Amino acid sequence: MAVYAISLAVIIFIFIFLKVLSPYIRDFDKTFLVAEGSFLVILSGLRSCNVGTDVLAYKYIFETFGASSLTAEVTGSFSQLTGYRLLCRAVYSLSGGNYQVMLLISAAIIIYGFFKFIYYYSDNCAASFFYYISLYYFFFSWNAVRQSMAMSVCLLAICSLDMKRYKRALLYAVLSVAMHNVVIIIYIYLLLRKIKWNRIIFLIYTAALAVAMLFTENIIMIFCRIFPRYTIYLNKLLIGDYSTFGGETGGRKIILSIAFLMFILIAFCFFKDEMFQPLSDGRKIEGVQLHMENLWTFMAAAMIEVIIGILYSTNSFYLRVQTVFSVFSVFLLPAVVQRFDRNKDSRSAIYVISVILFFITTGVRMKLNHSGIYPYEFFFSV
User: Fold this and answer.
1) pLDDT digit string (tens) for 232-276?
2) pTM of this prediction?
3) Which of 94, 95, 141, 286 has the most CB atoms within 10 Å of its CB?
4) Does residue 330 contact residue 135 with C-beta atoms inside 8 Å?
5) How far is residue 304's CA from residue 297's CA, in Å, rounded to a whole number?
6) Which is nearest to 207 in space by CA: 109, 95, 332, 300?
7) How many CB atoms neighbour CB 249 within 10 A?
8) Are 80 and 170 a contacting pair, CB within 8 Å?
């Protein structure tokens, strides 16, 4: 546990140090995310194979796929981890079969995609970062490595699309789905962007979403027909096996979902219509003017996570879906807080209190050793 306490201290030190130097830093958000992201990649990439529930299984997959022929990977079924197989084969060849290199590359891919999306679209990058840590998303990636990488590549696809890099966006989109099929649903976010939201439409959307979620078997059956490898979830459902995913229990999922719902309700009930509009014009990157999302879009995306967390907190398939949409909570929370109070000191207090509360849930998860992160071991100490 000492490693995690020291790591938290380092994370806080980096933030305070850069804040002090912020008058001399041209782009604080980018500098902050690069510094913190680099530290997280090192912390994640230098751990031994005993840290993380499924790491040993992924090591076996790496060694098996890495030693197989490239032709077998290209001609394999698209629904059978094709993207991840190709990555394993490439890293295996370049590293001489060193799985520690694979862990570092996996960590770098995960952090890069998530943090780039935060840089592009968060109303407060530092707040989004601390929510990312305090909501256990970082440690979750130590277990669900493949899904986390696929989610990160999805976010890169969306960023590339907005940058008008259409070929790159298409490549990222195909790679993400080839790496983990479930993440295909994150592209619903692109549709949510196009809706002209207001309170009535949001209520209709939420009701329709809740009703659709009631048809569990039909939705899973359709997905399994497209991607047969997920038939295991349908079989579990039909025989009454409602085991959870990643060691999470339904109670904690519901608590976090209710917390996110509270933020949504605050915005829905108390914000004026103009408060839902973007707070800025967005960043101009490489000559392309990005447009910040309105609050409605993040609320709509987060509502999917909320409804699944409340209705299906014990369904392993839906919990996988929930983790895909949980990424939007790190954008929803700062977006609500930034609009809730224009006073900078009041906002800072809200951020500190909410992050501390979420860190308490993280402490509970760590104590229960969710994702198998305890005890931490460096690869060179084993």
Assistant:
1) 555 555 544 444 444 444 445 688 888 999 999 999 999 988 888
2) 0.88
3) 141
4) yes
5) 11
6) 300
7) 13
8) no
- C-alpha–C-alpha distance, residues 374 and 382, integer Å: 14
For residue 375, is the peptide bond before it cis, meaning its omega torsion is within 30 degrees of 0?
yes
CB 190 within 8 A of CB 301: no
Rounded Cα gap, residues 342 and 179, in angstroms: 42
In the structure encoding, which two tokens stand for residue 93, read together? 């060849």
CA-to-CA distance for 81 and 88, rounded, in angstroms?
A: 10
Task: Please answer whether residues 146 and 58 qualify as being in contact, where contact means their C-beta atoms are separated by less than 8 angstroms.
Answer: yes
| Regions of the chain short of the pLDDT cut 70 | 69-81, 216-220, 223, 226-253, 313-317, 381-382
Phi, psi of 113 (to 5 degrees): -65, -45
User: CA 122 to CA 292: how far, in whole Å?
Assistant: 8
Phi, psi of 289 (to 5 degrees): -85, 110
> Residue 208: how many CA atoms within 13 Å on its side-chain side?
7
**Residue 164 and residue 262 in contact, taking contact as beta carbons nearer than 8 Å:** no
Write the single-letter amino acid at 337.
V
Burial of 311 (C-beta count, 10 Å sphere; 0-12/13-18/19+): middle
Q: Bridge partners of 288?
A: 285
